[in-house]
Amino acid sequence: VAHEAKERRRRRAQKKSQPSSNLKVRSVVKETELPDEPEAQPQPQHMSGMLPESIVNLLAARE
């Protein structure tokens, strides 16, 4: 019985430690953002709480 509980905990820990899909989104965003793109514009300071347009477009495309 104790061995079964130990196996269950081990499997649960392995599932928890697997990378989430959120990391995939971050890597896609890093690949798509290139500094030499002509459409990439620096964001003004007053919009610091807003997401960049490229990220908004990426999220909209996923839905």
Describe the model.
The structure is a single chain. This protein is mostly helical and 63 residues long. It is 60% helix and 0% strand. It contains three helices and no strands. The radius of gyration is 20 Å and the shape is rod-shaped. The N and C termini lie far apart (45 Å).
Core attributes:
single chain; 63 residues; mainly alpha; 0% strand
Order of helices and strands: HHH
Shape: rod-shaped
Number of DSSP E strands? 0
Mean pLDDT: 70
Largest sheet: none
Strand content: under 5%
Number of helices: 3
User: Unreliable runs, pLDDT <50, ≥5 residues?
Assistant: none
Q: Distance between termini?
A: 45 Å
What's the gyration radius in Å? Answer: 20 Å
Q: What share of the residues lie within helices? A: 55-70%
Assign the structural class, choosing from mainly alpha, mainly beta, alpha/beta, alpha+beta, or little secondary structure. Answer: mainly alpha
- Note the quaternary state here: single chain
Summarize the structure.
With 63 residues, the protein is mainly alpha-helical. It has helices spanning 2-17, 21-32, 53-62.
